[in-house]
Amino acid sequence: MRLEALITGLVVAMIPVIGEAADWRYGVSVHDFNVPDVDSHTYGLNASLSVDERTQSDLHLFGSVDLFVDNDKDHLDPDHIPIWWQLNAGADGDVWRDDRLRLGWMTDFNTRMNTVSSVERQMTALAAMAAGYEGDIFQYSLEAGPGWFFLEIDDDAPRERGYDREGLRNSTLAYALTNKAAIKLGDDWTLSGLARRWWDGHQTLESQYRAELRGNIDHWLGRDPAKRTQLVLGADVYHYNLTPYNESNLPSVVGWDNDVLVRLSLETRW
To answer: What are the Cα distances from residue 225, in Å, to 137, 169, 221, 268?
Structure first.
């Protein structure tokens, strides 16, 4: 059994642990998957399902899965199937906490599969210590710890540059530093951000940035406020280090090293 299949199976096996009090949410989105280096925009639709729960022992569990359908026109990947997905699962808890400050821990697993930017498979698993401030208006946390980093480049675009299937995977023990922040904008809106960088000890493997504006809009729609229907505008930016895949006698394995996913979503409770 492949390692990624085993990890995904473990994530799925955690679902029965989620209790009846969990906050299940689903959403629909329109998106633009942008590869700025080659001025590529791929538009599409996606659906999401997420869960969030804090157990009686104060363990915080969370997870989400997103399925994307692209309208792929510019063929960055000459044999791209325009359906892809991503998954996130994790947990966190406190070691010490007072009114606003906390020290704790977190675990996190993420995967992206089959993006139009030639990411065939990406998986990261992280275990980190965390320190944070949680005020009424502003929250901030810093997380640092070791993990596992895996990134495989799809072989279709590299084949046109002289590469074969060998050497398109990088799997390594690594460590990551993550900054998270959020600020409340009135009673209904929140602006949040994330910056995470992965290293393998001597070089940067990847940098990830996320920004999200989220607001409650039940009062706009005349719905029950308990539904917590939310409008979400978000962007995810990935910058990849392609050095582990490049060969000295060939051009870069692909002609870009970043991608940007912009989404406008409508989410509500299950």
So the answer is: 21, 47, 10, 10
What is the C-alpha separation between 192 and 182, in angstroms, rounded?
A: 4
C-alpha span between 160 and 80 (Å, rounded): 14
Instruction: Return d(Cα 161, Cα 42) in angstroms, integer.
Output: 22
How far is Cα 144 from Cα 129, in angstroms, rounded to an integer?
A: 6
| pLDDT tens for the chain, residues 1 to 270 | 455 554 555 455 455 455 557 899 999 999 999 999 999 999 999 999 999 999 888 899 999 999 999 998 877 887 888 999 999 999 999 999 999 999 999 999 999 999 999 999 999 999 999 999 999 999 999 999 999 999 999 999 999 999 998 899 999 999 999 999 999 999 999 999 999 999 998 899 999 999 999 999 998 988 888 889 999 999 999 999 999 999 999 999 999 999 999 999 999 998
Measuring CA to CA, how many Å separate 148 from each of 20, 60, 145, 196, 216? 32, 22, 10, 14, 36
State the amino acid at position 163 in one-letter form.
Y
Whole-angstrom distance, CA of residue 217 vs CA of residue 190:
12
The answer for residues whose C-beta is within 8 angstroms of residue 220's C-beta and 6 or more apart is none
Question: What is the rounded distance in angstroms from the CA atom of residue 246 to the CA atom of residue 168?
Answer: 9
CB of 120 closer than 8 Å to CB of 113: yes
Rounded CA gap, 152 and 7, in Å? 16
Percentage helix, strand, coil for the chain under 3-state DSSP, each rounded to 5:
10, 60, 30
